[in-house]
Amino acid sequence: MSAENLPRLARETVNGVSTCLAITIDRRGDANARVINPSTLTDEWTVRFMTDRRTRKVGEFARTGA
């Protein structure tokens, strides 16, 4: 396998996953894992998923910069 193929293989692997975990850290330092259904990987290697802005996970993402 050549190094040029790695990004393509990584993209295929990520796009082949329909369910994954989003893990955040709360104010006490405890991990919270949630099952999410991500979108297709963008050209910039960004994965998006939808959630309500009022959820605890949004606050944890915002606080930790994850």
Work out the strand percent.
Answer: 15-25%
User: What portion of residues is helical?
Assistant: 25-40%
Sheet with most strands: strand arrangement? 1-2
Q: Can you tell me the residue ranges where pLDDT is under 50 for at least 5 consecutive residues?
A: none
Provide the structure class.
alpha+beta
The best one-word shape is elongated
Quote the average pLDDT: 89
- Tell me the number of strands: 2
* Main β sheet profile: 2 strands, antiparallel
Q: Report the C-alpha radius of gyration, rounded.
A: 15 Å
In whole angstroms, how far apart are the ends?
32 Å
Number of helices: 2
The ordered string of helix (H) and strand (E) elements is HEEH
Tell me what the structure shows.
It contains two helices and two strands, in the order αββα. The chain is α+β, with helices and mostly antiparallel strands. The chain has a two-stranded antiparallel ribbon with strand order 1-2.
